[in-house]
Amino acid sequence: MAATLSAELGLSSLAARLLVLRGQSTPQTATQFLSAGVEGLHDPYLLLGMEAAVKRIRLAVEHDEKVLVYGDYDADGVSSTSLMLHLFRELRLRHDYYIPHRMKEGYGMNIAAVEQAAADGFSLIVTVDNGISAVEQIAHARSLGLSVVVTDHHEPPDILPEADAIVNPKQRGCPYPFKGLAGAGVAFKLAQALLGRAPLEWSDIAALGTIADLMPLTDENRILVRCGLQTMQRATRPGFQALAEVSGTAIETVSASDIGFQMGPRINAAGRLEHAGTAVQLLISEDVMEAARLATGLDQLNIQRRAVVEEITKAAEAAWEERCRRANAAGEPHPGVIVLAGAGWNPGVIGIVASKLLERHYRPAVLLGLDESTGLCKGSARSIPGYDLYEALRTCSHLMEHYGGHAAAAGMTLKHEHLEALEQGLCVEAARQLKPEDYVAVSKIDLVCSPAEATLQTIQELSRLEPFGSGNPVPKVLVQASQLAELRTIGKGNTHLKLTLGGRGDSSSLDAIGFGLGELAEGLSGSSSADVVGELSVNEWNGKRRAQLMIRDLRVSEPRVYDMRGNRDPIAMLLRLQERLLKEGSSVAVVGSERALPPQLHQQSAAAGSSGMKGSVIQVYHPAHLPADGFSCRELVLLEHPASWTDLQHSIEQSPEIAALHLLFRRNRSDEQIDWIERKRMVDLYGWLKRLSPLPGTSTEAAKRLSAQAGCPPDAALLALNVFAELDFIRLDTEGWTVNSTPAKRDLSESTSYKKAIQEQELAVLLHGESDPIRHWLGQFPGRQHVIA
Fold first, then answer.
1. Helix, strand, or coil here: 110?
2. How many domains does the chain have?
């Protein structure tokens, strides 16, 4: 399929493969995906309730009624409200809008606001991005003589409100072909139906709500966002131009990512800390100076929002650690869902904090702010794939005053006394919905490519699949087993990781940058290659453009060998290693005699297993006494030569957890001693034994005499005595070591001592050599795990 797309559409193989992965497997669907415009929008009257909604609003126009737009305080609610206000201006309706205060009123319609609308002379309320669950409130509005048209996109409850019209693609029986519209998208469809055309001049507002609410950028949303970006890039709306300026965004090249990470948070900041009305005024303003003032205010609120988020995140992390400590003390597993509440936690930002805890601990998170004066907790929740948050909350609905949302995000209000029961209920659902492996974050990879394939041309072709976002994410590329031609840290405090993938100085190499990943540099430095996952982008510097990879994840699938032999201060290197491993909670084994160990390591070793070690264990082994059953550690340090290289190999073979080997010993191998193990030298030593036979004394004494006569090292002479004794070429009798007069013809390889000496020699040569062969040797042992991420 990819080959067909590549040939018929003139795409690279990478771009064609990505289209197939995104469900566009034919030239027709791929063309629609890449370039569909306004003609691809669906008929708005396919939405159940649209005809009734249009009829009621037109009746309001005819009778000059006063209409209230009832919105929501998040970016989608602000966008929906603003779009509806633009529509009612065009329809020349008398109108106003109302958005509840997040902290004082909470989400959705409330009785007090409905009564005030009736008192102010409104006869029709049109909800945007809310209302689908407002059964009681809408019933009260109807009792006061108010008509209500609901436009919403949230999951409908079992019982719907008795409104004059409900427009929601997710309601039962709605034939609309696309269910993923944001609240702003539903408002856009209402405008399309009322005007008899697609109002693309407001598509920028619809795009903001769609992106900020994390709606899938597929089908109709893709068209709305593409058209919205084009409208925004023309800088015709003062509000977006002002937002771009305060956020440092180039309006002429604004992308979906810019809206999601720059503009959206500033729009949201109004409703999170104060009132969303400021953001609505920005989006409907036609005055450049007013827009600049409003955008500056939102920017300042966003700075405050970040500080509040940081403070609550620290408190929430501490609360989660305490919750896990209690579980450990009781011998229980950690809860499958994070459920935390704190007095004074701002309900406007705890959704962000929930997202942060989810990212760090990878489990569903529910964060609530407690109002001690009322005893009510208002909160937000975020979920991981596999856990339907809305369904889980539905099973606990009897514990809550109110709840609503989607499978991935939700909000709720409940009494503090029900908090523990909520945790228990959500954890029961987690046990039902999730398997242990679901709690492990997975990097989804779209494409595999080499550094040579990651060109500017490839990036340009992949960009044709924009806009990227929820449902159509920026493609993640795996550069597999790529050579690390360069590895360093950059930025203040060396917080960022800089890699060059491919051959050093090679024109086909690829630059890679990992922001905030500088701490991985030390762990990577013992590797020659890595699997790197990231997003391709263009780096422009001094007028030059180069392809680069934004690192999102990485893995070393080979053992790491840190060659620090010859370092002037190996003890300092060891202590730095110790500090890193303690922070990671990993274990380390050190081969070195007591005289070679620093006092600090002695102290830590003595304390191994204590609470201050964070679960780490530092094991120290004398070079002559290595564990036959292996090392229990992730990293092994050779501070000194082992007495036997073969014993070291045996110990490592029994240690599948070892992922790194640190070489700190001195290179002092004796080539002369190794030379005497060669077959010709051994034959020479046998000749000397014949001439000296009988050779008196113990084996050690005889070896010294043989060494002196033959001019060989004592160890080589002792090996010769053992080998020839095993082969029955010599024997020890009362006169000493005597050569047999008629020995059987045997090969040196039949001697166990000789075979071990040859193996010892080969290992000595290997482990005194370059690091790449050592890395290959270490990687051959079965069961080895070498992953670092």
1. coil
2. 6
What is the rounded distance in angstroms from the CA atom of residue 779 to the CA atom of residue 787? 12
| Residues in CB range of 608: below 8 A, 6 or more apart | 616, 617, 618, 619
Is there a domain that residue 597 lies in? Answer: yes
Residues 15, 458 contacting (CB under 8 angstroms): yes
Is residue 277 in some structural domain? Answer: no
| pLDDT band of 671, cuts 50, 70, 90 | very low
Among residues 723, 732, 780, the alpha carbon closest in space to that of 750 is found at: 723
Whether the Cβ atoms of residue 109 and residue 150 lie closer than 8 Å to each other: no
Q: Which residues contact 621 (CB under 8 A, 6 or more apart)?
A: 589, 590, 591, 592, 627, 631
| Residue 481, domain CATH | 2.40.50.460
666 secondary structure, DSSP code: -
Joined tokens for residue 102? 């997040």
Residues 6+ apart with CB under 8 A from 291: 238, 239, 241, 242, 282, 285
DSSP 263: I
Regarding whether 585 and 694 lie in a shared domain, the answer is no
Domain range for 389 = 335-432
Say yes or no to pLDDT of 483 above 90. no
Pick the more confident residue, 703 or 620. Answer: 703
Are 398 and 412 in contact by the 8 Å Cβ rule? The answer is no
Residue 268 lies in a domain: no
Confidence of residue 146 (pLDDT cuts 50, 70, 90): very high
Distance CA 500, CA 483 (A): 8
Residue 709, pLDDT above cutoff 60: yes
| Alpha helices per DSSP H over 654-713 | 671-675, 679-692, 699-710
| 626 plus 745 within the same structural domain | no
- For residue 77, which of 123, 21, 131 has the smallest C-alpha distance? 131
Rounded CA separation 89/561 (Å) = 69
Count the neighbouring beta carbons within 10 Å of the beta carbon of residue 594.
8
Rg (C-alpha) for the chain, rounded Å, is: 36
Contact call for residues 731 and 738 (beta carbons, < 8 A): yes
Is residue 739 included in any domain, yes or no? yes
**Residues 608 and 652 grouped into a single domain:** yes
Domain of 414: which CATH number? 3.10.310.30
- 479 shares its domain with 530: yes
Q: Rounded to 5 degrees, what are φ and ψ at 176? A: -60, 135
Half-sphere exposure of 593 (CA within 13 A, CB side): 7
The pLDDT value given to residue 35: 84
Q: Tell me what pLDDT residue 603 has.
A: 47
576-627 pLDDT tens trace = 777 777 666 677 888 888 776 766 654 444 333 332 333 346 788 889 999 9
Same domain, 607 and 717: no
Write down the pLDDT at residue 574.
78
How far apart, in whole angstroms, are the C-alpha atoms of residue 192 and residue 53?
Answer: 12
Give yes or no for a contact between 551 and 516, defined as CB atoms under 8 angstroms apart: no
Last residue of one domain, picked from the residues 376, 399, 432: 432
**For position 583, what pLDDT does the model report?**
67
Q: Do 656 and 738 belong together in one domain?
A: no
Percent of the chain residues past pLDDT 90, beyond the cut: 57
Q: Which residue, chain included where needed, has tokens 């011998």?
A: 331
Look at residue 608 in the predicted model and tell me its pLDDT. Answer: 37
Same-domain pairing of 588 and 506: no
Q: Which residue has the tokens 């840290």?
A: 489
Other C-beta atoms closer than 10 Å to the C-beta of 519 total 14
CA 95/CA 126 separation, integer angstroms? 10
Does the pTM of the predicted model rise above 0.85?
Answer: no
Last residue of a domain, one of 399, 432, 465: 432
Q: What are 683's two structure tokens?
A: 């034959």
Do residues 779 and 526 touch, judged by C-beta distance below 8 A? no
Q: Are residues 479 and 604 in the same domain?
A: no
What CATH number should be reported for the domain holding residue 591?
3.40.50
Over residues 279-304, the pLDDT tens digits come to 999 999 999 999 999 999 999 999 99
